[in-house]
Amino acid sequence: MNTSAPQPTRSTALNRSSLSQQAVEELRRRIAGNDLAPGQRLDEAALAGDLGISRTPLREALKVLSAEGLVEIRPRRGCYVAEIVPADLEEIFPIMALLEGEVAREAALRVSAADLKRLDQLHASLERHAADGDVDRYYEVNYVFHDALQGIAGNRWLQHVIGDLRKLLKLSRHRSLRLEGRLEESLGEHRALMQALHQRDGDGAERIMKGHLLAQLAALQRLMRGLSA
């Protein structure tokens, strides 16, 4: 007589996978929005109840987030939202500068008239939000702008690696754009980038994008020094 436990059907496995993916997306949103704060210990039972799922798909979701660096699973101690410290930023931003610099170079060489029209529209939104001093909206549109550049570059491996690093950078509660004068500096860097893109200047676009990312790091460092003073 076979007493082994019944194996889950394909349908059950797919349903569980769907629940796990939904949990990943919701937890990513909460971490990015600081609803789950850096360093916070995650109560699995309470979180599963809040999400309306069992602990099995929740644990699968936490494993995915752990692989992305968004949470830290500590044996016998539980699961915690990851924290980004200044040393992390100093290591991540130079890598991002290289990767996004390559994106800008490839995009400048591939960009079409339709692409430029879309980028011009996004840049016009950045101009408006900067004029209004609306840092939150500027940040949102800037995120879309960088996504659009990655799409134009068409390098899926760059997109994948940059996507993971951008998720990590969202853990930082410090926003460089809130530093006095940084919003105007960022807009100036975007203007220069748009000029390089219109000229199909790959080397220029790469150089400007690298400078743009490293300027963000410098602003964050100044901001964090001010907070710790």
Estimate the mean pLDDT confidence. 88
CATH structural architecture of the largest domain:
Up-down Bundle
Could you name the CATH topology of the largest domain? Four Helix Bundle (Hemerythrin (Met), subunit A)
The succession of helices and strands, N to C, reads: HEHHEEHHHHHH
Stretches with pLDDT under 50, minimum 5 residues: 10-14
GO molecular function: DNA binding; DNA-binding transcription factor activity
Domain HTH gntR-type: 17-84
Keywords: DNA-binding, Transcription, Transcription regulation
Organism: Sulfurisoma sediminicola
Sequence-ordered SSE layout with sheet pairings:
Layout: H1 10-32, E1 41-42, H2 44-51, H3 55-68, E2 71-74, E3 78-81, H4 86-110, H5 113-132, H6 135-153, H7 156-169, H8 182-198, H9 202-228
Antiparallel strand pairs: 1-3, 2-3
Helix pairs in contact: 1-3, 4-6, 4-7, 4-8, 4-9, 5-6, 5-8, 8-9
Kindly summarize this structure in a few lines:
The chain is mainly alpha-helical and 229 residues long.
Structure description:
Helices cover 73% and strands 4% of the residues. The protein starts with 9 loop residues before the first helix and ends with a helix. It has helices at residues 10-32, 44-51, 55-68, 86-110, 113-132, 135-153, 156-169, 182-198, 202-228, and strands at 41-42, 71-74, 78-81. By secondary structure, it is mainly alpha-helical. The radius of gyration is 21 Å and the shape is globular. The longest helix is centred in the last third of the chain and has 27 residues, at 202-228. Keywords: DNA-binding, Transcription, Transcription regulation. InterPro entries: GntR_C (IPR011711), TF_FadR/GntR_C (IPR008920), Tscrpt_reg_HTH_GntR (IPR000524), WH-like_DNA-bd_sf (IPR036388), WH_DNA-bd_sf (IPR036390). This is DNA-binding GntR family transcriptional regulator.
